[in-house]
Amino acid sequence: MIDESSSSSSSSSSSSRLVEDFEEELDEEVDSEEGKNQSGRGSPTPSLSGFASLRAVIRIKQKYQAIKKRRQEMALRLGAPGALTGAPGRTSPKIFTFDPLTPTSFSAFPPVPQKKKRKRKRRVMFPNGGPCKAVPKQERSRATYCLYLLFAIVFLQVYNAIENLDDHVLRYDLDGLEKTLRREVFGQQGAVEGLLSHFKDYLSTYVHNKPLVVSVHGPSGVGKSHLGRLLAGHFRSVVGDTLVLQYYVLHHCPQEAEAMQCARNLSAIISEMVEKAEEEEKIPLFIFDEAEHMHVEILDVLLKLVASKQSNEYLNAIYLFLSNLGHTHITKHMLQNSSSISMAMTASGRHSNLVKELTPILRNKLEKHHPLWTEADIIPLGLLEKDHVMECFLEEITREGFYPDHSNIERLAGEIEYYPIVGGHQYSQTGCKQVVAKVNML
Length: 442
Fold this sequence. Notes:
By secondary structure, the chain is α/β, with parallel strands linked by helices.
């Protein structure tokens, strides 16, 4: 490493000596030339070469003084060592080294001033020739904040509704109800899926614009009353006994003369249950079995209750009607179209076709019977086949504690009356209605 300070001092001293020697020689030459000129002035003929050399010496001296003055000014600017002594300072040559740069190495260089950028203000010239004025600030409307608040409220409401969907479904244990119906209702899997679909859509929320009205129709022995008992037992376990009503017309109101009084009593019972369910934030269930025997007065009262123009508490209720109205149309349709029904088709597929074809026919007949069925969703139950009847026997024999012998079950199922085989289907005329009586005779 070479010491920069020692090199700069030695170079500056050597340069000052050279300058002094050069000045002494130049002064001696100028003096000698001036002496020659003075001695020659007495002669009448001065030499032209002497004047030329004198001019050259004067020009050299002037140029030297100008260079000297310029060097002194540069030395004063840069703070060179020869600035104070009057000698022209020379900067030492820069030698490349591998030493890292330090902040002191930059102190020799003067800072370069940077111009500050001035922000130009937006100005506008008015057409009337007035002075320039700044653009007026735009004030935000308060309606924007109200709109943001409205969006936040709607988002919270929607989020709360989505969160409550699962809570309502879990409260009524629809998964458990589905397992129960699939296990204990035979031959009506398509109808079970349709009924559960209505329940899930309705029970997923507590805000409704009309009550849920479902009317289940089918021939005798296909499982209508059994389905009603299963639904009543399940809802009693989830909402309580006081919020489930099973109404049998032939039991609660056997005489037609008392139909008006029965209608008033039924209206009072339903109103009391609905008000109680509203307090507990639950949805009650009303099951009306053998609805084909209900009197007109009772149907009129129920029509007023299920109409959509009611108060809020009357909109949160489920009405289930079980009836064999239209059973002849269901039986006739299934017997005539059994050949077109594929054996490979699933139960839900067969039931969807049955509902699609029978719903217009049944609705037309039911609306003629009473306008109540204009407010109802209709679910038809089809005829049971021999395999379904055997499942009914197996379930009843197991419940009674008998050994489930397959040959014995097949023998009992063979004693049931059936329609003629059509398209590979053998439908029972009485369904599972005689199963309990035959098992009790064992």
